[in-house]
Amino acid sequence: MSYSRLAGALFVTLLAILALAGCGSSDVVATFDGGQVHRAELDKQFKLQRLLIAPQYPDTPQNRLEVLQQYIVMHDILDQKAKQEGITVSDKELADTVAQYRQQLIQYVYGNADALNKKMAELGLQDNDLQALARDDILAQKYFAKHLSVSDEEIQAYYKDHPADYTIAKVAHILVKTKQEAEQVEARILKGESFAQIAKEVSLDPSKDQGGELPEGPLSQWVGPFQDAAMKLPIGQISDPVQTQFGWHILRVDSRRVEPLSQVKDQVKNKVMQMKEQQWFNQAKQDAHITLEDSALKQAAAGGP
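RESULT FIELD:
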């Protein structure tokens, strides 16, 4: 063998050794039944989440742990199950889904294709990374469509048990620091002073500029005590002081209506399906017997920062 060929062979061997070293046990962040995840894989998945969810998605051990668990279940575990059942993804499905990703990212996050492409370059991401993610999403949709369903009885039960989700109200409120201040506000209103004027004068909430009026929406968007008061308070009357983690409120409900099930049936069905998918995910995560090898991830799993 000539010197040049020998040198070339040694160089290739060296590269192989370095590659193996780079994927050694110290680089494994987690193992699970059937496989393991290397740090480079987790880094790539975290960058994808930063691209898709929010560019400012904080790089914390807790967030990385969530991404890791999602990746193991929705990529490795689900891929195995899909293969066993002959579930596949066509080239057209893949291309259409990637195009949808890009369109939504441009519309809602980046504004134009150049900005999106620049961000992908900054993160070291390529189109094949989006394709891999799209493939996982399509497989998940097909698998869940085959194995999970929602009955009319389940839809009716959820609708009945979650009235705040489908009760739409127009509410005004005045927020102050103490119960005593709230009682003083209540007394002033009962004496005939303008609710809106008092809100502009003393309320700590940004809605004070609108006389305390909040945008119409479902009661479920508000915290528990506020939500309960808005559900029970007679239209047009003011509440006694209501305490939340934000302070003390005086409420007035200007309108309140319940959306009939016939109008929100699809919305309720989607919500129940999401719950079933989450239950499936939690069980699959448990069955995978994930073992963390990274100290920061272990701390996050134990409830640390």
